[in-house]
Each structure stands twice: as C-alpha cells, then as structure tokens.
Amino acid sequence: MPKDTDFLYVSARIKYLETKLLGKNDIERILDAPGPDEALKLLNDTEYGYDIAEMENIYEFEQVLDKSMLRTIRTLKESFENHELITFFTLKNDFHNLKVIIKSMILGKDNGYLSRLAEISPEEIKKYAEGERAANIPDSLKAAYHKAMGAYELTKDPQRIDFALDQALFDEMGKIASTSRDPFLREYLTALSDLTNIKTMLRLKKIDGDIRTLDNALVNGGSLPKEFFKEMFLESSQSLIEALESTPYHQIIDEGITQWESTGSPSVFEKLIDNFMISLARRGLYKPFGSETVIGYLAARENEIKLLRIIMVGKINGISSDMIRERLRDVYV
Description:
- The protein is mostly helical.
- Helix content is about 70%, strand content about 0%.
- The longest helix is centred in the last third of the chain and has 26 residues, at about 290-315.
C-alpha cells in the first residue's frame, strides 16, 4: 500500500490547484448572470479563460470543460506514479463510450456523445466492436463488450446493455480499490456502490420492475448485500427509510424519497447523493498530503464541471436562475 509520503509532491501541487477551484460565491455570480454569454465572461479570469477565448460559439462550452479536465488529468499523471487513482475516476468514461458505440451499432445511428476524457481511444473501441480483434483495447473492455452483447442478444432489451456495463465498470473499480489497498478509495467506492444500488432499486420500483431485473442491475462493491435490496424491493418506502436509519445514508434516503414521491422527480435524490459523495471527498481538503488529496481533488474537479454544465445548459435554454439553483450541488471549497 502506498504511504502518505509517496504523495508529497502531487499533494503540494494539488494544494496550489485547490486555490483555483470555484467557490460558492463564484458559482453564485455565474448563476446570476443574465445569459450564457455573460456567464462565460465571468469565467474569463478563471482556469477556463484560455479555452473560452478560442470558442467560436456558445455551444462549444462542452469542449472548454473537457479541455480543462484533460489538463487536470495530465497534471496529476505528471506529478506521481500511482495512476490507478486517476484511472478509478476516468474509467467510467471508457465504459460510457462503449455504451454509446454498442447502442449506435444496434440502432444503426449515432446514439450519444463520446467522451474525450477516456483512457482508451473511442476509435479503438469502435474497431473492436466492428470485429477487428487486434484493436488496442484492454481485456477488461473486451470482456465487458461481450457481456453486454450477450445480455442484449438474450433479451433484445437495450437496457440490459447499461446494466451489464455498469456492473463491469464497478467490478473494475473494485479491482483498482483492492489492488491499491487504499482505505479511503475503498470507502469512497463502498458509498458510491451502495448509493448507486439504492437509486437503481428505487427507479425500478417506480416503473414496476421485477426482482429479476433488479438482480441484473445491482453492482458490486457496496456494504449493503444484494439480498437486502431484493427484500426491500417488495417493501414500502417507509420500510426502506427505517431499514437504513443506522447507516450514513439515512438523511439522503429520508429526504430524497420524500421529495421523489411528492414531485415525481428523482432530481433532489440525485442531488443529495452527489452532495454526500463530495462531502466524503472533502476529507482531502483537510489533509496536507496523502491519497485523500488526489481523490478529493479529482472528485472536486468533476463536481465543478458538473455545476458549470448545469448552469450553462440552463442559461442556453432560458431557464431561470432560481430553477437552475435548485439543481446545483455543493461546492468542494
């Protein structure tokens, strides 16, 4: 297991980079801008300014966010040797691309945005999906591809592709956490897995899904066993709230389910999950050095980009600041 002192150099760089993160007041100023152009102008003096200057139109703001995150990843990779911690966060982008490519093949048309933040070139993934077995992708992605295609061929249900790839993703994240033997990474994954499974179960309950579908959708890596979810699947919302009363997730479940049932929307529940995860990651903010600083900073950057995306999409679509504010997550700093 890496020692905290192995992270001295990268932690020092991160402590400087943390000063560049957007705080609550920064986000409020951007949110209060009258339109998307004015919101972008407020970002000119931030880390995003250089890329904003190269934009040709407002719709290229996604590229600005991607370029910023790519610089973060590159800076961290240059600063320490344990790239597994970085891969833990970037791996979801590879699996996202695999989902998009498989569904595009099945539907015969483009089916989504390919992430530029993945470790593996989407072109190589596409080559493999089209039958070029010499394509340069890791065995884990090859296995995930065949698992997803097998699930789809068995049922002809595109949702089974999502389930299969989500399970494969969490299995790979679990391998990274196990190999790294990092207690905080393990704790972070446990919470993420538990909350993912809780959200999945609630979604399936809302659409009158069945236990077989639930079993195919649950991911590994959490502290709550799969049998717990199968039992709770048939119980009332109040029973679930009571069953999780002694867990760290109690407030999320209590408030989140109440809001979901009263509004018919899972947005508050999803916001509470994100806030819980950023609160957990914030431990890195208070450690001078160690893996927590890396994990916390990566989570912080992902969260910041999500906040800016919510604001900019809202501004472009003419949504009021108050409505956008309801969707915003907590900031890291």
